[in-house]
């Protein structure tokens, strides 16, 4: 099979009907791809992996199934083991080593992309003008986006060897161009 973004989108949307979950996939994709670009890695491979990391969550909503029972489905669809292994490694409960840059990056982008997205949703200007310091302040409020595991956000930045501020700024920058798709105010156009 030829690994393409279109193919991954097709797989994702066949198994995932929820708009919120599709948006989560898009956000993690944008962040992970931005790091692929930064590190000079394969943007398609990294983007496909991110797009698919929770593809089975709707049909496997519990941790005794997600994401491990999704793996045979991906294998059946012909995705390479590199993608499948990275998808499996995002799950804390499986305890798999994050021994490649792709695995580290996916893990680092998963929770933080969701959190930054949530920050954008409560601001009238969305992601415009969203500073790392206000994201960090919200991270310290346990009731805000309570489902986001803070320890995984901090661990992710460490895995990438980045200061949390820098990682947050990178994710905000990555999400801005797809703000409209995420249900956030679209970024102002040049000259508008
Ligand atoms: Fe997941
Ligand atoms: Fe996720």
Task: Give your account of this protein's structure.
The model has no long low-confidence stretch (mean pLDDT 96). With 192 residues, the chain is an all-alpha fold. It has 9 helices and no strands. It has helices spanning 5-15, 19-39, 43-52, 71-76, 81-89, 101-121, 132-139, 150-160, 164-175. Helix content is 57%, strand content 0%. It binds fe (ii) ion (2 copies). Residues 24, 28, 53-54, 110 line the site of one fe (ii) ion (FE2).
Structure summary:
This protein is mainly alpha-helical and 192 residues long. Helices cover 57% and strands 0% of the residues.
Topology:
Layout: H1 5-15, H2 19-39, H3 43-52, H4 71-76, H5 81-89, H6 101-121, H7 132-139, H8 150-160, H9 164-175
Helix pairs in contact: 1-3, 2-3, 2-6, 2-9, 3-5, 5-6, 6-8, 6-9, 7-9
The structure holds fe (ii) ion (FE2) (2 copies).
Number of helices: 9
Low-confidence stretches: none
Number of strands: 0
| Averaged pLDDT | 96
Which class best fits the helix and strand makeup?
mainly alpha
Helix content: 55-70%
User: Alpha-carbon distance between the termini?
Assistant: 43 Å
Q: Biggest β-sheet, characterized?
A: none
Bound small molecules, which ones?
fe (ii) ion
Our Rg estimate from Cα atoms comes to: 16 Å
Shape: globular
Strand content: under 5%
Series of secondary-structure elements, N-terminal to C-terminal: HHHHHHHHH
């Amino acid at each position: 099979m030829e690994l393409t973004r279109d193919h991954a989108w097709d797989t994702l949307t066949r198994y995932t009907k929820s708009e919120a979950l599709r948006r989560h996939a898009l956000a993690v994709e944008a962040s992970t791809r931005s790091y692929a670009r930064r590190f000079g890695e394969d943007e398609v491979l990294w983007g496909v992996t991110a797009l698919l990391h929770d593809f089975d969550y709707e049909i496997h909503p519990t941790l005794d199934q997600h994401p491990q029972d999704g793996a045979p489905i991906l294998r059946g669809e012909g995705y390479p083991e590199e993608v499948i292994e990275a998808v499996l490694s995002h799950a804390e409960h499986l305890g798999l080593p994050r021994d490649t840059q792709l695995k580290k990056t996916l893990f680092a982008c998963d929770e933080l992309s969701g959190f930054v997205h949530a920050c954008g949703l409560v601001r009238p200007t969305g992601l415009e003008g969203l500073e790392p310091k206000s994201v960090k302040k919200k991270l310290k409020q346990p009731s805000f986006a309570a489902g986001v595991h803070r320890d995984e956000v901090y661990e992710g930045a460490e895995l990438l060897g980045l200061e949390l501020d820098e990682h947050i700024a990178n994710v905000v920058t990555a999400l801005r161009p797809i703000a409209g798709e995420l249900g956030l105010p679209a970024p102002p156009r040049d000259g508008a």
